[in-house]
Task: structure prediction
Amino acid sequence: MANAPHEAMHRIFQEYPGLFSRVSEVLGLAFPESTRTEVLSNDLTENQPLERRVDTLLRIDTEHQGPFLLAVEAQGRKDPDKHASWAYYFSYLLAKYAEWAARPVRLGAPQWPVLTLHPLVAGPHNIPFITDVAQARKDLPLTALSAITHADNPDVGAILKSLSTALRDTPETIANPIVELTAQGLGNRPAAQQWRNLVAVDLSFYTSPLSEEIRAEGEARGEAKGQAKSLLRMLELRGVGVPHEAREKITACDDTELLDQWFSRAVTATTVEEIFTHG
Result:
């Protein structure tokens, strides 16, 4: 089942198709820069019950070497069955787009391997760990991919900081997709909170969905803090003792509706326990 990090790992190629030529260079292959990119249907299903879909499928035209197909698969874990899927994708695409994408293909038995698939694999082992702000500013999509790929690295904060710093002087129309794709790619891993903190501090002037969400959360926390303070003051004025554990529970609460309920009960409560229970 697709999840946010999985979606971001291949959607970034849809948003920034030129990224492939930089990634291929990292992988030791020289694919030319694209002159035009078209997102094709990712449905590879035949007229059979079995459904197959590649994550992202692009047709990329080049000036001197002609067009080619780029099938992007995002893998978050090992899948022993994926090799068979890759072979199917290749043969299906060859047949579907044979008019312009045909290549010499040889078939045969295992002892006579005439069809060999060599998928390009990009991962933490070969995607650069970008921590230089100048390098990040030069290639924002690659830096975002670097952060997503190295999300589980304890030092990923260095990549995120270089990216947030590089985005400070970047127009919002360019920065916002990078901000959102990075957040989506990090998912619910610890690095995601690091990114939210950096967006809140370094990019607080932006109006992206993520920055708006962070601002709303900050306002809610501020409101809850004020309610907690008023509740404690009410109990103090009424002479109701508040043990340390109860005080911690009140000050740590960020649910404004619950704090409002506690405040209403505090008007008549004679003990602090009464505000936490339904009367």
Remarks:
- The beta strands are 36-39, 56-61, 68-72.
- The longest helix spans residues 209-237.
- The chain has a mean pLDDT of 78.
- The first strand starts at residue 36 and ends at 39.
